[in-house]
Amino acid sequence: MRVGVLTGGGDCPGLNAVIRAVVRKGTQEYEYDFVGFRDGWRGPLEGDTVPLDIPAVRGILPRGGTILGSSRTNPFKQEEGVRRIRENLAKCEVDALVTIGGEDTLGVAARLSAEHGVPCVGVPKTIDNDLSATDYTFGFDTAVGVATEAIDRLHTTAESHMRVLVVEVMGRHAGWIALHSGLAGGANAILIPEQRFDIDQVCAWVESRFKVRYAPIVVVAEGAMPKDGQMVLKDDSTDSFGHVRLSGVGEWLAKEIERRTGKEARTTVLGHTQRGGTPSAFDRWLATRFGLHAIDAVRDGDFGTMVALRGTDIVRVPLAEATAKLKTVDPKLYSEAGVFFG
Ligand code: F6P
Asked: What is the CATH number of domain 142-275?
């Protein structure tokens, strides 16, 4: 049996831990051979491969990023994409494909599997933690750790200058990183994409914080938006790769808070620091277990499935279910955090 492995979409800490676990268990227990495909779906689309065996995965457990490279290439948007993938898989004598990715990469795996009989097993990843079929995705815990450490550091400089510090974290559609790091870091306001915020309310929280002689920290997810009528954000734009670029809600907030309250404000955009670097212990543990269970699914011929965390168990769910809808922050969880605002 020859197994192909690819990593697609935005990278995240823990991808290498999955690759290592898949290759180690597959080689040692099942005597499989492996081939790595470079840069997500671009690899099988163009037949771009890299050797993958136990020496190749030695030492990669704590390394961020992915030794296979990643891209957002979607074969369904390429001419003859499916045919080219099938041909290249046949050429490489690949019997099964382990696809490690988020909504887009796994969405492609789901369609290739259901509509074209390509034998795929999925492994969910995203720092955003917004895949509905799994309790947690790896990468999320590391991102929350990075954001929490940044908030801790920003508290002290905010206090020294009695300034407002706005921290913009990742999360286009879901506010999980903002909510978890905001709670862990003791933020005075947490703004998430699921609920439009009222800038008057944010300024009231900021002012009440200054009244007790503390400098406020506002954590905002990149996809958060002010409510209608308060919108002065630039339109989202699309870059030359076709990715939507958000318009800088953190910068806008700091300016607006300064204008309305007269208090000095600064913004820190954490951006890709949340995606880079070594995975946390939790993410290494989760990614490793996902890898071990994914290669078991290959052994069982259980294609069209994805491994998922439910409680402390790793289960298999249909790939189609995994990509059906985004997991957003429950309003109850969000309102629970409200007691710390202001
Ligand atoms: O989906 C993960 C994510 O990290 C989002 O939170 C963020 O908006 C996006 O990727 C950034 O993507 P890129 O690296 O393409 O700028």
From this structure: 3.40.50.460
